[in-house]
Amino acid sequence: MITVGITGGIGSGKTTIAKYFSSEFDIPVYYADTEAKALMNTEALRKPIKELLGEAAYVEEKLDRKYVASKVFNDRDLLEQLNQIVHPAVGEHFKKWISQQDAPYILKEAAILFENGTASALDYIILITAPKKLRIQRVLERDGSTVEDIENRMNKQWDDVKKIPLADFIIENIELDNSKLQAKNIHRQILRDRVNT
């Protein structure tokens, strides 16, 4: 099974492109950030997260994401400790998920594939890029964050300049029809490589 990461900064449109691969080419997509949130609500992770961040991390056994974000946002050590609880669990869940798939390849969609070191375990990486101004505009329209909030979140992720040399494929996602065309070419290339290996 070929494993392909799809990543990009906030507002780049990586989820939109991942959904296109899924609907157009029937490629299974593992949404790592969504699965991480779900796993944080399981009994196995609830206990260590409460021990790390306190009982207030959960309200009626559901993760209080605002509280957790407020605790780890400006505390790198605390964030690192939280990641050490969550990332291995996501890794195990991902392995199990792969074993249940039947497709020429799968996609793993995650915001911080390079930052958290999981990119190296994948066969290919597709990086989704877009100009900063456009990304901010998209996030403003999507979830009503402030520009300051968005820029703070952007500053926590690697800049595209750092990620581009590490990616196997790049989709510049400014205009969706053009991005779909780029995705089609990448899909063909991965299938070709699969046949040739």
Task: Characterise this structure.
- The chain is of the alpha/beta class.
- It has helices spanning 14-25, 32-39, 43-53, 65-72, 76-99, 132-143, 147-155, 160-163, 176-196, and strands spanning 2-7, 29-31, 58-59, 62-63, 105-109, 124-129, 169-172.
- A 5-stranded parallel beta sheet has the order 2-5-1-6-7, sandwiched between helices. A two-stranded antiparallel ribbon has the order 3-4.
- Helix 1 (14-25) crosses helix 9, helix 2 (32-39) crosses helix 5 and helix 3 (43-53) runs antiparallel to helix 5 (76-99).
- The chain is globular.
- The mean pLDDT is 93.
TL;DR?
With 197 residues, the protein is α/β, with parallel strands linked by helices. Helix content is 55%, strand content 14%.
Give the end-to-end Cα distance, rounded to a whole number of Å. Answer: 12 Å
Oligomer kind: single chain
| Computed Rg | 17 Å
Strand residue content: 5-15%
Helix/strand-derived class?
alpha/beta
Return residue spans where pLDDT drops below 50 for at least 5 consecutive residues. Answer: none
Order of helices and strands: EHEHHEEHHEEHHHEH
Query: Treating each run of at least 4 consecutive H or I residues as one helix, how many helices?
Result: 9
Overall 3D shape: globular
Helix content estimate: 55-70%
Largest sheet: 5 strands, parallel
Question: Largest beta sheet: what is the strand line-up?
Answer: 2-5-1-6-7
- Give the overall pLDDT as a whole number: 93
Q: What's the count of strands? A: 7
